[in-house]
Amino acid sequence: MDFSKLRATSKVTTEWSYPQGAPLRTGWLRVDTAPDHELYWEEYGRADG
To answer: pTM of the predicted model, to two decimals?
Structure first.
C-alpha cells in the first residue's frame, strides 16, 4: 500500500464536531501488577439511559 499521499488528502482534524460534555464517571482500571499498569476510562452519555 502506498500511504505517501495520505497527509495531503486527509480531512481529519483535531476539532470535535460536537461539544463534549463532562463525563458521568471516570476511573482507573488496573490491568497488570508487574510492573503496575493502569488504564484511565471515562463514561459519557445520558445518565437516565
So the answer is: 0.54
